[in-house]
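pls design
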């Protein structure tokens, strides 16, 4: 499966969990970041640096989703497989 389709699947999964995904320019000399999960004013959020390759964005979202209980949510099998091998 191509990374663009993987991103769409992950965005759908995050939406089912009520997690927003926002991409922007995270280039900051003082606080460098590629992205990740955060909670802002009670809202679950995954930030992504839009300059990252789709494969890198997929990895960041997978890492963020691994924090959540995903048993009650339908996920494509490839996502479940990836999350089961995450450390």
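designed seq:
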């Amino acid at each position: 499966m191509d990374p663009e389709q993987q991103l769409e699947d992950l965005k759908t999964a995050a939406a089912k969990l009520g997690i927003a995904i926002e991409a922007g320019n995270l280039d900051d000399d003082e606080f460098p970041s590629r992205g990740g999960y955060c909670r802002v004013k009670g809202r679950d959020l995954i930030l992504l640096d839009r300059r990252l390759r789709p494969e890198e964005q997929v990895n960041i979202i997978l890492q963020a989703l691994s924090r959540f209980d995903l048993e009650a949510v339908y996920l494509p099998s490839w996502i479940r497989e990836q999350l089961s091998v995450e450390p």
